[in-house]
Here is the input.
Amino acid sequence: MPHTITLNIRHDWPESDWQKIQSIYRSMPGWQDSPEMAAWYGREADAQYIVASVEPSGLLIEGRVDAGLWTGWLMSWSN
Here is the structure.
């Protein structure tokens, strides 16, 4: 099932803030180390994935995972 959420995180934040977000990315369950895109559990071509991209509207997170995994993964941002 496809999911998407846009977080109100500005694309023009200072580099120091983006470094903190990168650290959070790496601590999230399912992290896939890749220089091209922040990804968890797989890439967009895979059956299951979550990816993040920085857009003018904010931090866009989208994925194709079951609803329980999506909700649990999002909740790990607050921990």
